[in-house]
Amino acid sequence: MSDNERDLSRYIDSLNEGKKPKEHGLTDNNREMDDIYETVRRVRSLKDPVMPDNGYTEKLAQNIAGELRKNHRTKKVRMTWFVSMAAVAAVVVLALIVNFVLPANKDNIVYAMEQAFKQIKAYHGVLEIAQMNADGQKSTQGKLEIWSDNENRYYVKELIGAQSGLITANNGEKKWQLRPDQKEAYIFSAFPDPYRFTFELGKEVDEIKNALKFEAIGEERVSGRMTKVLKVYPQGGAPYKLWVDKETKLPLKKQSAMQNALQYTVVYTKIEFIEAIPKELITYSTPSGFSEVNKKYEQIVSNLIEAEEIVGFTPRMPEILPLGYSNYNTAVDTEIKAVKFNYTAIDNAKNILILENKVNKEFVPVSTAVLGKIGNNTAEVQSPIQEDWGVLGGLGPYAGITDLKSIRWQNEGMEYAIIGNDSLEVMIEFIKSLKMGDVQIPVNEAKTLLKPQVEVPVNMDIEENEQKSVDSGHSPWKLDPVFVAQVFVSLKISPEGIHGDYPIKYEELKIMQNTGIEAIIEVNDTKTSISKVFLKKLIRKDNTGIWSVVGYDVKK
Amino acid sequence: MLMIDENKLSKAREGDLKSIEELCKSTWEPLYRFIYYKVQNREEAEDITQDTYVKAIKHIQKSNTKVERYISFLKAVSLNVIKDKWRKRQYQGKRINLDDVNPEVISLEDSTEVNAQREVIKDALGRLNEEQRRVIELRILEGYSVADTAKIMNKKEGTVRVVQYRALQNLADILKNND
Questions:
Q1: How far is Cα A178 from Cα A166, in angstroms, rounded to an integer?
Q2: pLDDT per residue over B69-87, tens digit each?
Q3: Nearest CA in chain A to B33
Q4: Are A238 and A255 in contact (CB under 8 A)?
Q5: Are A429 and A354 in contact (CB under 8 A)?
Q6: CA distance, residue A66 to nearest chain B CA (Å)
Q7: Mean pLDDT of chain B
Q8: How many CB pairs under 8 A join A and B?
Q9: What does each C-alpha distance from A100 to A134, A325, A551, B14 come to in angstroms?
Q10: Interval A63-103: pLDDT, tens
Q11: Is A392 left (phi over 0), alpha (psi -120 to 50) or beta?
């Protein structure tokens, strides 16, 4: 096959993918190929053009405004770029290998990013956070110096911003925050860590891996580096833009969508890839003149007898641990008398906690949770954890941390919870090892539930708009199947609208089944003939998907 | 009739987002379609549309222009932008001086030329042999990859590439003779 035939195929492929072929920017003297390329374009003109995405005019206007304003500036300040050349070379070689061996498609972009990130032992950078309002006015919100490594340790210092001088660090053993304005050192548990720092490279790679889709929309120079610009459509939330360094294959800049007339941009103005975080930065010592404030929720115990003496019961420990896990420590909450076993995987990147305490209350699962069974008992599965009910309220906080999952249940007067950032399968292994009977936790798509007696027609256009509205922060109650059922039943009683309190109380509704995709809610109220409400996640099946009523049963 | 007034243009020149947005909203679609027709890919069409506006807003001096006239002006500017970007003689249109733009000519070229061109291309495709026409339809009009085209036609990928090349050579000759 000749080069011309291969080049022509590549040219057609580029146009089919909606991308600019490299031939459109080159100067050569191959008249024959020029004629053939032009013929390709003329044939393609029989098709309708591919139009830009929604919101194009706004984006276009912003870009044009930016370009026109740039003309008024006198001199562009060039950012410096300091890079440890040996480390970058390794990343670049890997990125090149990935690019040459594999054809360029979306999966490979993510794969290249994942592989590039895996090669990094640690990085050090300066992150700038800027805000822009609807009129295009920009302001710098802060500047952070960041050190982070592949064992989840980090050190972040705010260089410029409202909390200038604030240092937050986590060395895997403890987390601390030095607040120079108050001369105080706050100490926290190392895990769970509710908030690390913004624009963490590993987290960005994970986010793009889990995104619904993304598309390459161009190339741009950022902080002196050539980047590929991606538009990412996450699971839940508005699409955002990510600039990925073409050489290192790692994110360099991120820009949120304009929401509530504000748009945020975070960019690494400097970054270097290093062997390790300097030891002195992740070794804790109280600076002179600082007082120490202990915010830890736990007291470490050295053995089970010690734990038993404090909490007043014999805690149950897993007999066999999943591969790679070991018991890092055991702690107790002296106030709610709970025990916490802390297990860490060998690579330190995953943690599992088992919480146990005595209870004398009926088990009520969180309304947004998926339900399963452990032995004969109902189990509540939250992924991520949205509410810290029961034992989850101790030795925390856990709710609102995006990568944490929990399974909570009761057995023989005790309440248990498994919390972790590993897969549900690994968490189930831990539960099985506690020997409380069969474990039935829906991990994948659950089977379809029973059909309702009366079906409720659904307008998908309205539901899609509702989902968009929830994605942008409105009507969060649509994520709670009990609340959606409450509104539905209330409107059946008062079709003219609800004034004041709902005629049906939230407490009068009980989750009978919830697979995470379908749910059945029982109604216990004499004001309505409805006995059960059937709901489904019709637009999106994950925890960001809204619930819609698809039917109901009436009392006999 | 919609008008683009000098006040709006003047604000736009200073980078006023609202004025630029108004300007874009009333003009972007015909301009984008015109550019897409020339470059046949979305990425480049979006880029050139943006560059066209930047260049046009900086240059236009006339006040109180009708939107239709302004669109014609934008199209003329876009031809220059494409020419600058490609820097190749392959591009057939001659370079247009902004001062010499005759918007009516550009408009005419846009509407009647396109329809006539479509007929010429369809006719040229009809003059290819069955195998060549099928490859062109699958690869260019339906957007299949070489591998998928090979599967559909029960041929080797190499054969598809060869047939595709010959088909386009023939088409280029037919079209040249028609032009």
A1: 6
A2: 778 888 888 888 888 777 6
A3: A49
A4: no
A5: no
A6: 7
A7: 80
A8: 174
A9: 42, 37, 53, 45
A10: 888 877 765 443 232 232 333 333 344 444 434 333 433 33
A11: alpha
- Spans of chain A, pLDDT less than 50: 72-104, 445-446
DSSP per-residue string spanning B90-103: T--SPP--GGG--H
A55 part of contact set with chain B, CB < 8 Å: no
* A253 touches A242 (CB < 8 A): yes
Residue A297 confidence (pLDDT):
58
Q: Do A9 and B16 touch (CB under 8 A)?
A: no
Cβ-defined contact of B15 to A25 (cutoff 8 Å): no
The nearest alpha carbon in chain A to B143 belongs to: A16
Amino acid present at A513:
Q
| pLDDT for the residue numbered A447 | 55
CA distance A431 to chain B (A): 48
Judging contacts by C-beta atoms under 8 Å, the chain B residues touching residue A60 are 24, 28, 46, 49-50, 53
Which one of A4, A25, A41 has the shortest CB-CB distance to B40? A41
Is any Cβ of chain B less than 8 angstroms from the Cβ of A305? no
The helix/strand/coil state of B12 is helix
List of residues 6+ apart from A348 with CB closer than 8 A:
A151, A152, A172
Q: Provide the greatest CA pair distance for chain B.
A: 63
- pLDDT for the residue numbered A44: 93
**Cα(A90)–Cα(A99) distance, rounded to whole angstroms?**
14
The answer to whether the CB atoms of A9 and B49 lie below 8 A apart is no
Of the candidates A19, A38, A63, which has its C-beta nearest B50's C-beta?
A: A63
Percentages (nearest 5) of helix, strand, coil residues in chain A: 25, 30, 40
- For residue A414, what pLDDT is reported? 93
Cα dist from A455 to A446, A509, A529, A533, A535, whole Å? 21, 20, 15, 10, 11
Taking the C-alpha atoms of residue A163 and residue A157, their distance in angstroms, rounded to an integer, is 9
Whole-number pLDDT of residue A540: 84
Q: Identify the pLDDT of residue B95.
A: 43
What pLDDT, on the 0 to 100 scale, is given for residue B79? 86
Residues in chain A with CB shorter than 8 Å from the CB of B13 are: 68
- Predicted confidence at residue B100, as pLDDT, reads 47
| Positive or negative torsion for Cα B34, B38, B41, B44 | negative
Residue pLDDT, tens place only, A427-445: 999 999 898 989 988 765 4
Q: ω before A397 within 30° of 0 (cis)? A: yes
Say how far apart CA A68 and CA A546 lie, in whole Å: 42
